[in-house]
Design brief:
This protein is α/β, with parallel strands linked by helices. It folds into two domains: 2-93 and 260-276, Glycogen Phosphorylase B (Rossmann fold), CATH 3.40.50.2000; 113-259, Glycogen Phosphorylase B (Rossmann fold, 3-Layer(aba) Sandwich). The chain contains twelve helices and ten strands. It has helices at residues 2-7, 39-42, 47-63, 72-81, 125-132, 147-155, 168-177, 192-200, 210-216, 228-240, 242-255, 261-276; strands spanning 13-15, 31-35, 66-69, 89-91, 113-117, 138-142, 160-163, 180-183, 203-207, 221-223. α6 links the parallel β6 and β7 (160-163).
Amino acid sequence: MLRDAARNKGELNHVTGDINFIMVALPSKNSILTIHDIESLERAGGLSSRILHYFWLVLPVKVAGKVTVVSQHTKLKLLQKVSVDPEKIVVIPNPVSGIYRYTPKPFLKEKPILLQIGTKYNKNLEKLIPAVAGLSCRLTIVGKLSLAQRQLLEQHEIDYVNKVDLSNEALLQEYIQADIVTFASTFEGFGMPIIEANAVGRVVLTSNKGAMSEVAADAAMLVDPKSVEDIRRGIVELIQDDQLREQLIRNGRQNVKKYRPEAIAARYLALYESMST
């Protein structure tokens, strides 16, 4: 793969996937590396992790001409891991898909639908489930549930549906049907469901930590992801306070403009042009 990269290098090279190591085969001056997330790498351990850390992160970042990251939070994390000039690292967020467009619907106040995207450990279902216990709502969970998560849902008598392997179009329909999008993760490199919910016009509850609060800005209810009580408080406020909910939706329609494909493409074009001069 390194040989192929060296043979096929262009006037400008941009590595965006999980092959960061090929940066060593590309000319530093006109090569860009995109880092989406380093949180997961931080949580690994052992010798294999240290090797991965060097060849996937440290070495590629050092040899790249420029490095783009999807959030200021990721930039700060990266600078803690790799000693490089901060000016070398440029924040350019992920774009939201063009299929996500404003689709208003009446809010089901008597029994709102809460949409939870993701079931991995960082998605914080173990705190969300007790937070909604006893509330009049339906929880739609996208992602494969573990046995322990199913047991917790049953223990707290949650009215829920579980959906897996959704197409992009099917996921869009879940956003459209939802009343509140819950995304109180413990960590994220970015937080795309926040922006997708903003785009569709659904109020969002997300974490006050890291990249999520950065991405959400003033367009979401921010809560402490470690506190069941605070997550519950946020959900109850969104259900009960019509003015707050509508204001957050309006803020979301403004917030999403920064993440539209044309806005992100313009930022990359400016970077490419600066690398070509």
